[in-house]
From TrEMBL:
Transmembrane segments: none annotated. It comes from Parasedimentitalea maritima. This is Guanine deaminase. Catalyzes the hydrolytic deamination of guanine, producing xanthine and ammonia. Pfam families: Amidohydro_1. Residues 67-427 form the Amidohydrolase-related domain. The gene is guaD.
Length: 429
């Protein structure tokens, strides 16, 4: 595989967040070419300048296509790959009917390997180059996804899911084994190649106070790790939390009390936040992860993107496979737009693309490595065909600017729009 290469096309990068002052599209810039060498981005600009920078590089011409950072999916459950799009349940029944029976299978390393590789195949085919995944309680499930990602050279985050109550026998650990297994896996994988470990209590209803305390202690010992969990996804879930933690001020307090609120915390969903919760999450610089296809598919609710962004929250975007009904970040962007419309605050195409790349990378504290096209960043890229189907092509042909050409692909695109994927400077598709 060529160690250095130049890609020519409409190269999209962001100078700032499109959620700040000014027009969203002014946060982005488009150049003609991007140069890659040894897995890193070495330059962007005119084709002539990139040829001067790397005179011996092969040039791959994508003149009619968009070149952007690879998509970053900030909240997934790779073990739910096989049971995605399961019918008709809300969260708690959905977990009991579909999720837990499937997750029971991941103590079998061969099965975990099969699903891990299937999942990464499906996501790369959809242009996703970085994911942050829950595993199952089984250490084998963690080893499987990290082994598969390492072989592909991917940057991913994952962690053993910890649950010691309100789950079937065979899917429960204990406060002590959850701590011990998580620590051993963290020491084995965290910081190896492009792999990062996330401490992973599933959510407070499936962990006793003792286990939450143990997870908080582990995070305090390894402050460079991320911590991922769920927060305020559905109203009946919130009532369940109140019954389990009657002394807690609110749902967030069930984490905060045990040292599980911090700047490197990732809180999936966060739909029904109380004022105190919003204030505390912002004060800590924690990340809220918006999962729009999941929120509509299992009937959770409408995330307040505009309000939370205006307050200064750090927000990422995610498929939430398999509560989410698609492996595609394009479909996820479309769902985020639709939810914004329902709240009266539609998102601009620039905001959607930023959320799926730099915004999600920032939520994972990785925006210095992935999620944008800039010198020194890791060369994870996706080439988008903005005319991948007849329906999209006939609409984009009428576009008056680049954003109008991109938007039909966001709304109607699927894996057919993914022309190429580059991971660490190597072509993956």
């Amino acid at each position: 595989m060529t160690a250095e290469i130049i890609l020519k096309g409409q190269v999209l990068a962001f100078d700032r967040s499109p959620f700040g002052e000014g027009a969203p599209q002014d946060a982005a810039k488009v150049t003609e070419a991007v140069a890659l060498r040894d897995g890193k981005i070495t330059g962007t600009g005119t084709l002539e300048d990139m040829r001067t920078l790397q005179p011996t590089s092969k040039v791959v011409d994508h003149s009619d296509k968009l070149i952007t950072a690879g998509f970053v999916d900030a909240h997934v459950h790779y073990p739910q790959t096989a049971m995605i799009a399961s019918w008709g349940k809300r969260l708690i029944d959905w977990l009991n009917s579909y999720t837990f029976p499937e997750e029971m299978r991941f103590g079998d390393r061969a099965y975990a390997d099969e699903i891990a590789n299937r999942y990464l195949d499906l996501t790369v085919a959809n242009g996703t180059t970085t994911v942050c995944s829950f595993c199952t309680i089984h250490p084998e499930s963690v080893d499987a996804i990290f082994t598969a990602a390492q072989a592909r050279g991917q940057r991913i985050v994952a962690g053993k899911t910890c649950m010691d109550r309100n789950a079937p026998e065979g899917l429960r650990d204990t406060a002590q084994t959850g701590y011990d297994d998580s620590k051993a896996l963290l020491q084995k994988w965290h910081g190896v190649d492009r792999l990062s470990y996330a401490i992973t209590p599933r959510f407070s209803p499936t962990s006793t106070p003792e286990q939450l305390q143990a997870m908080g202690a582990l995070w305090a010992e390894h402050t460079d790790c991320l911590m991922q969990t769920h927060l305020s996804e559905q109203t009946d879930e919130i009532e369940w939390v109140k019954s389990l933690f009657p002394q807690a001020r609110d749902y967030l307090d069930t984490y905060e009390e045990f040292g599980l609120l911090g700047a490197r915390g990732l809180y999936g969903h966060a739909i029904y936040l109380e004022d105190r919760e919003r204030d505390r999450l912002r004060e800590h610089g924690a990340s809220l992860i918006h999962c729009p296809t999941s929120n509509t598919f299992i009937g959770s609710g409408l995330f307040d993107m505009a309000g939370l962004m205006a307050e200064g929250h750090r927000i990422g975007l995610a498929t939430d496979t398999g509560g989410g009904s698609s492996f595609s970040m394009l479909r996820t962007m479309a769902a985020a737009y639709e939810i914004g419309q329902l709240r009266g605050t539609p998102l601009h195409a620039a905001q959607l693309m930023w959320l799926a790349t730099q915004g999600s990378a920032a939520s994972l504290r990785m925006d210095d490595k992935v999620g944008n096209i800039a010198v020194g960043m890791e060369a994870d890229l996706v080439v988008l065909d903005l005319a991948s189907t007849p329906a999209i092509s006939q609409r984009s042909d009428r576009a008056s600017d680049l954003w109008e050409a991109i938007f039909p692909t966001i709304m109607m695109g699927d894996d057919r729009a993914i022309a190429e994927v580059w991971i660490a400077g190597k072509q993956a598709s």
